[in-house]
Amino acid sequence: MAISVVMPALEMAQETGKLVSWKKKEGESVKKGEMLLEVETDKAVVEIEAAGDGLLAGVTAKEGDVVPVGHTIAWLLKPGEAVPASGGPPAQTGRKMDAAPAAAAAAAPAAAEPPSAAGARISPKARRLAREHGVDIAALRGSGPGGEILADDILAAAKAGGTPAPSAPPPAAPSVDAGTVTSIGRIMAERTTQSWTTVPHFFVARDVDATSLNAARERLIPVIEKSHGVKVTHTDLLVAAVARALRQHPRMNGSWTNGAIALNADVNVALAMAVENAVVTAVIRNADRSPLGAIAKQRRELAERARAGKLQPADITGATFTISNLGMFSVDAFTAIIVPPQAGILAVGAITDRVVAVGGMIGVRPMMTLTLSSDHRLVDGARAAQFLNDVVTALQQPDALAT
């Protein structure tokens, strides 16, 4: 039976995906598990595997197209099969369904949105933006498959100060340069704006004496290099400390979902990583149960894939908490915006020598500032303070993090 290749949903609340490239040409033979296409989300460029064997046919989306989630963009056909007409078999996502439970659940085709007044289909996000910007969708021609109206069409019409005539072609995609926002950057901007304006943030901060942390890292570097072939970093120790604290504070590891608190069974810590023109969050899974060497190895592998633009669906889904470390950029302290539906995010500043009180005397110590952003719907000030205190305690007793 013909297998449809659809635009997958790789994240919560994802409505569209950008087709970056096809790994196979139309008419070529494809084997199950082979890389078939690349899709860009707000977090990364993700490679999608073929769900079965067949000949690639009926390709309807070209590189650079933004396609609504769940829409068929090609078919994998057996010998002698023809491209099905509309109303064919249910769509099957073109990637491994066991990559990550959260991603697999999200990959189900999106419900069809009712046609616009002009008879064209319109994505849910585009309809919302049309209401917000006062754009008349009845006279708008979409740039999506079959004339579907996408969010970019609405934003272009709003920017032009009105709705373009139906005969007007869709605006050409601008080339990316230093003054152009990439689609990843644009979606990230939308998500952070939504988080900042809808999530009740509050912040608690602690200055941490990193003397013991620095000494433990120096002792552990040769040990971890020998056992796992990777150099342990301060970030690895932070992940271990945060993960173990999350295990003791289930609310801090929870999610605000559908107006209620959901406690997550696993502790999956995401790390914010800077890549070209964007920031991605890659996930270290089961960090509370992973030894320090395994955490360091995961972190290095994720960083390498992020820099190469090769993050997989399992790399970017399922996070229950996020760490954003700007210490390597000499930032002393900052506050970070929560990644919904997570309960919090920890902002980490640089370790720098400061004059502090030590045993009633003036001394100089390597200090680090931690700032915890929390969702007040899940935790109150006391819970957040207790969690941060446990993180600080773990960092001041770092040898226990090695196991």
CATH topology of the largest domain: Chloramphenicol Acetyltransferase
| SSE succession | EEEEEEEEEHHHHEHHEEEEHHEEEEH
Secondary structure class reads alpha+beta
Please outline the major beta sheet.
Answer: 7 strands, mixed
Query: Helicity level, as a percent range?
Result: 25-40%
Low-confidence stretches: 87-119, 163-170, 173-180
CATH class of the largest domain: Alpha Beta
- Total strands: 18
Q: Indicate the mean pLDDT.
A: 81
Shape, please?
A: globular
Q: How far apart, in Å, are the first and last alpha carbons?
A: 50 Å
Strand fraction equals 15-25%
Overall number of domains: 3
What's the CATH H-level homologous superfamily of the largest domain?
Chloramphenicol acetyltransferase-like domain
CATH architecture descriptor name of the largest domain: 2-Layer Sandwich
How many whole angstroms does the radius of gyration measure?
Answer: 24 Å
H/I helix tally = 9
Describe this structure in words.
With 403 residues, the chain is an alpha+beta fold. It folds into three domains: 3-106, Beta Barrel (OB fold (Dihydrolipoamide Acetyltransferase, E2P)); 124-173, Dihydrolipoamide Transferase (Irregular); 185-402, Chloramphenicol Acetyltransferase (2-Layer Sandwich). 28% of the residues lie in helices and 25% in strands. The chain has helices at 101-106, 124-133, 151-159, 183-198, 211-228, 234-248, 292-308, 313-316, 381-396, and strands at 3-6, 16-22, 29-30, 35-40, 45-49, 54-57, 66-68, 72-77, 92-93, 201-209, 255-257, 260-262, 269-275, 278-284, 321-325, 344-348, 352-358, 361-375. The strands form four sheets. Strands 10, 13, 14, 15, 16, 17 and 18 form a seven-stranded mixed β-sheet that branches. A five-stranded mixed β-sheet has the order 3-6-8-1-9, with no helix packed on it. Helix 6 (234-248) crosses helix 7 (292-308) and helix 6 (234-248) crosses helix 9 (381-396).
